[in-house]
Structures are given as C-alpha cells and as structure tokens.
Amino acid sequence: MKSSISVLVLSIALLFFSTMSSWAQGGAVNEKKWNFVVAPYLLFPNMSGEITIKGIPVDASANAKDIYSNISLGGMLYFEAATAKWAFILDGYYVDLGGEGVTPLLSRRATVDMNQLVASVAGMYRLNSWAEVGIGGRVNSIGSTATIAPGEYVLPGSEFSMDEAWFDPLIVARVMTRFNESNWRLGLIADFGGFGLGSKYAYQVNLFAGYQILKWFEIDIAYRLNGMKYEKGSGTDLFVYDVILHGPSIGLVFKF
Question: 83 is in which domain, residue-wise?
Fold first, then answer.
C-alpha cells in the first residue's frame, strides 16, 4: 500500500511540473563547457515506519519535536557537474536520530536508535531546456539498535543491533524552470529504484525553490521525501527497514 501511494504521488508531481513547464521559461545551462554546483544542505527530518531487528519489529515513527530533541547530526551535500547536454550528480546525506514506540506483540515499550548514510550518483541527459532523464544508483548504510523494555511480569528486557549496507539501481528524472525576468527557480528531482536487486522498492522526491542572490550564489529551500523497504534474512536473523524520512531542508548553493 505504501509503495502504491508513493508511486502515485511521484507520478502526479512529475505530471504537474511537466505541464507547468510548457508555459514557464526554462533555465539554460551556461554556454561554457562545464558548470559546477556545490550545495551544503541542512535537513530537518521526520521518520515513520517500522524496523525489524533480529526478527523483532519495532515502530520507528517520530515526529519533528521528538527528532529535534534526540537528533545528534543531520545534513546533506549536493554536487553537480554539467554541460549543455549532460549532468552528473552526487547527492549524499547523513542522519543520526532515535525514536520511541511499542512492539506489535504485548505492547512493550521500545526505543530505536538509527544512523543512516545515503550516497546517490546519477547521470542525466537533457531532453530540452527544462527536463532531464537518466540512471543512477544509491548506496545505503544503516546502523540500528532496538531496546525492548522488560515486560510487566517475567519477560526480561533486551537489546538488538544490526548493521546493513546495500545498493539500489535508480531511474532518475528532473524538471526545473526559471520564470521570465525573475531570480526565482522552481524544480523537482525524483527517482525510483531498488527493483528487488537491493531494496524491494526505493524512491525519493525532492521539491525545491531557489532564489538567486548573486550570479554565483543562491539560497534554496526544499522538501524531501525518501522511502524504501529492504529485507534480509529470516527468523531471528530477519532485518527489515520499511521507513519513510521526510522533511524540509535549506541549502546554500554555490555555482562556478
């Protein structure tokens, strides 16, 4: 159900921006051979979903208030090298956060601590002034620890931890436009992948708006949605990561 809703949202968003770009003027890449973008970002994530560690499922949902009080570190960095027809992208982010919930069985209190490093690479071909498509891949590295509180009677407390890393192939698309005589630009970059080769499914939607202050400097605000479902093992060795991370971000965009 989650995957169907996510694919629908992604499709509607891409259709909307494709339609919008038919009347908005696209932003063109400079005529020089190579253009570079470096953009450090700060992400303010929310988390929802479930993580199964050593066969024990734990609700891993946390709202913004919970995360802000428990987050240790969060950030991202975007790099792009582009010509008039091609763009090569590296996009990485890291979050270290925790959440509280209950186990599905016996409703025992549980806490989950998770750190996640994600690094995406993609190569895209420019179809016209506002649309690009391409392929890429994403490396996921997740460390998670679940602590289960003791039961009301004789059940002892326990702690489980597991580290996993995997690779997801991706299909990538981007639409972006700059309006006539305006310093504003609006865009969306999205990908979908996994296909059972890494995750069962993985997707990312990043909607952003930028305001150009100088020729070489821009401030961007964005909202990122990132979800995936990954399974490995069985029984007491089962690991399942079925989590959605989403939230706003702000970035400083340097162009040269």
Answer: 2-255
